[in-house]
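Subject: mismatched residue count in predicted assembly?

I count 792 residues in my input, but I want to confirm that the predicted structure covers every chain. Input:
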Amino acid sequence: MKHWLTWVLLLAAAPVFAQVRVTATVDRNRIGFGESLMLTITAHDTQTAPSVAIPKVDGLRFAGPSVSTSMSIVNGTVNQSVGLAYQVTPSRPGEFVIPSLEVTVGKQVYRTEPIPIVVEKGIPQTDGSQLVTLRVQTPSQQLYLGQTAPLNVQIFARSDAPLKGFAGFSAEADGLGYQYRPNLKSGTYIEGGVRYNVFVIEGAITPERTGKLHFGPCVVKAQLTVERRGRPADLFERFFGREEIREVPFTMDAVPLEVLPLPEEGRPSDFSGAVGQWDLEVTAKPTQVAVGDPITLTIKISGTGNLHRVSAPKLAGLDEFKTYDPTTKTTPNELNTAGERIIQQVLVPKSAGVKQLPVVRLSYFDPIAKQYKTASHPPIPIVVQPGAGGQATIVSGGLRVRPEEKLGHDIVYLKGAPGPVARVFPPSAFWLLNVAPALALLGALAWKRRADKLRADIAYARRNRASRNARKQLATATDCEQIQHALQTYLGDRLNIPSSGITASVADERGLPRAVREIFETCDAARFAGVAVDTAALKQKVQQVIDELENTDG
Amino acid sequence: MNWKTLMVNLLIALPVVADDFKTANALYDAGRFAEAAALYEKITPSSAGVLFNLGNACFRQNKLGLAILHYERARRIAPRDPDILANLKFAQQRLGVDEVNQPSQPFRRFWTNVTASRTQVEWSWMEITAWWIVWLAVAGGIWLPKWRTGFLLAAAMAACVWAVATAALISRITSPPEAIVLVSKAEARSAPVPLATALFPLTEGTRVAIREDRGEWWFIERADGKQGWMARSSLERI
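Triage response: the counts match. Full output below for your records.
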């Protein structure tokens, strides 16, 4: 209890006895363009928050402040401070000075020291250069023109390096025909007691000219995890940590390479430019044929080197054969440092005297042994029977017999007639034929529905035919009685009541037009009083009544 | 051109076509394949037989890519002709592209073969016939309820045929145009410029789909799905 009181008294007395001091500091003086620094103005030995008027500085933008307080007691001495933190972001590279700031604490005014800062153009190279190094791996620095040699770029990253991945790779290789695989190979390596993660960019070079050439410089952009500077910006950052991934370029100096021309000495006469180490495999099928039958000679060239410079071996002694141009199938690996080429040559023996196929020779330059070599295959013996297989035969009478054709060995013979031509279905007909059945069915359904209704609903049926029947009767009517009967028939059908019982009074009851009563009265006068009536005019009047009623709903 | 004019023109043209066709066949038999090919190319309209024989003439000149092109064109007109199919397969085997020209996925391969087994006109007639049967069966089910089950079964079967025919038609209509590689060595590049990175090689006779046409360059897709840009001069549209 006693100690607690002592502490309270000390804290209360502290502002009275301490001398207030104001400082301005930055977390770093040198930053890269695109980064920000933190400016902190601290009022020491006071609990009163300072107020600062931040002047305008060309090229610098100030955001903030955020206020913080701190207190510490060391050997009974109480240290208190209140800080204002501003985030300073440059709008261009260059050298700047944060000028002396006027800081007010309570009623007292203090001034801070000016702070110089330098903003560099790019992100400054960190000391990460020790973390990641690049090396080139190639079998030899001396190459031959046309040779394809593997060239790997090895990336050594210390195992403790905060490496997240790689964002890019570029290399200068003028005249070297450099190509590389986009996928990295990885492994580990220990050197001088330090463990490295090694990533390999597999590639190959095919020099396109002689002389001293250079591979590089090459640049690898590594993604490193770095701690974000300054105070945490928000709760999210506090919660999830303050790391960010930064792309840092690592470069490797150019590596000299010497490209030599292929030597003249020892060059075989049949050398056609193949460079590498090549094996030859030759097969023929079939080896027992009749004169005129084709033999397929398959030459498989496989090995390491520049497969594109390997051409089909020239065959000697082809006079005894009819030949066709060879077909070639080339299967290089992704970097064209190895692979195989299969050449198929069709040979047709001209006579039964042919006993063997030609010798196959392939001359190439071996860049490892640095000398020309020749791979060869001995002649393959064949048996050629006399006969006319596969050849047109002229028989007596001059008739030409169609050659026998074998599927799988030769193409099918010509067609004797031109055959069908390309046809197009007219789009309008297509759509019409598609729409027609649907319309037909819908129409039929509507018709069926109407027929069903006519059968089931007598009133509807009578009403439906009322006008038609009345008009028929009216057309043949010659006197008032017939005209009146036509009108009665119409009204009976329309109202679904017996037509004989319809009179002028019924018409009134049913709310029919006045003209109906007039017609009935006119007819009655003619029939019973002998009054002369113009039947044509009466028929027209009846017609008008029917029309009027037809046009009336219900 | 109306139907009458077309018929008259065809009647006039038929003897000429027949004469040229016979002459070209005779040139072929005499081993004068280049002259035969030139004459076949002059014959219009190009029928399946003319294109087939033209393919043979190209084959004999060892122009296997061109031969495949003409066999493919003939197959579009007569898709089930065994001679055309045999020669096309043989030429593709000679160039080693018979597998390359087939889609790698089993279902896609099956469907491609199904749609290619009939011409567009044949698929159209099949679709229309099945469609009419569906509607007639529905109408029969309505008017003749005694046979309703049979009619509905017929309608269901016809509807299945109609669905296949319609899908095949849509597939044929919407599928991109195709081309054949005519040069022995070609490469698909990453961009429509000569110095762009070569992505993968293409051999003569390879069939590709033309996804985009930019004048001198076509963006193509091989049957295995690989895509790239190719100079138009290396290809010919089927």
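Chain B touches chain A through 51 residues (CB under 8 Å). Marking this ticket as 'not a bug'.
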